[in-house]
Amino acid sequence: PQVEPIKPGGPNKPYVVLGQSYEPVAADVSWKERGVASWYGTKFHGRRTASGEMFSMYGLTAAHRTLPIPSYARVRNLRNGKETIVRINDRGPFHSSRVMDLSYAAAVKLGIASMGSAEVEIERLTFDQIRTGAWRRSPADGESTQLAAAAPAEATSVPVPADGADDPIMSVVPRVSQPPVVKESQARAYTPDAKGFWVQLAALGKRDGVDRLQQKVASDLGSLLPLLAVFHEAAYFKLQVGPYGSRDEAVAAAQQAKDALQLTPLVVERR
Fold first, then answer.
1. Mean pLDDT estimate for the chain
2. Which of 138, 154, 165, 174 is a good FRET partner for 52, with 20 to 30 A between their CA atoms?
């Protein structure tokens, strides 16, 4: 996080939505709040936010009805203790049952992407906390905080021939030009009942084949990393991307993966 001045007017001026009046916070003050947070992703990806910036589901951002735009907040999942720092750059949600809308990437960090929503604690980071570094968790806290950062840039794809004849469907090896190291934890472990539409990149007989494909995704289409999940079903390790809210969204993502990764992905639905 960094100190970004609170500008009067624009997204920080009072406004009315659905007959309800809202008055954004216009000062550098502490703020704590508890409530339910949900997330928004592909439907709004690429659209303009209240700040005028383009929304990216892969950035660690969030929408709040009254916190200053821009500002930073620590969000903690009260169920599992996971937390992340998000940048407030949009207004919403305009439902009385929720207090914050998170980007998909933030929802993944908090462990709520598969659930849809969760009760969270929101704590705004003041300018003084940012300047002095007081917002950081000490090692004694036992928690690591993910930082708000820009979405990873996509790289130009370079086709690579497969070499794993023992893999039943496909196998892909990464480029040798120092691809990013992909930790196994970057692919979410999901149970088979994760609902929604998914793009299956591969179904492999060995886990190391999945690991190689993860490295290729990191190298050639890094924006998909927050969406990766591994399902171990019927002796296969299935590397899938999702979930998407509709088949059309999944088909569009499959085409993007096909073009960038030189694969033939499948769209599957988990009910």
1. 77
2. 154
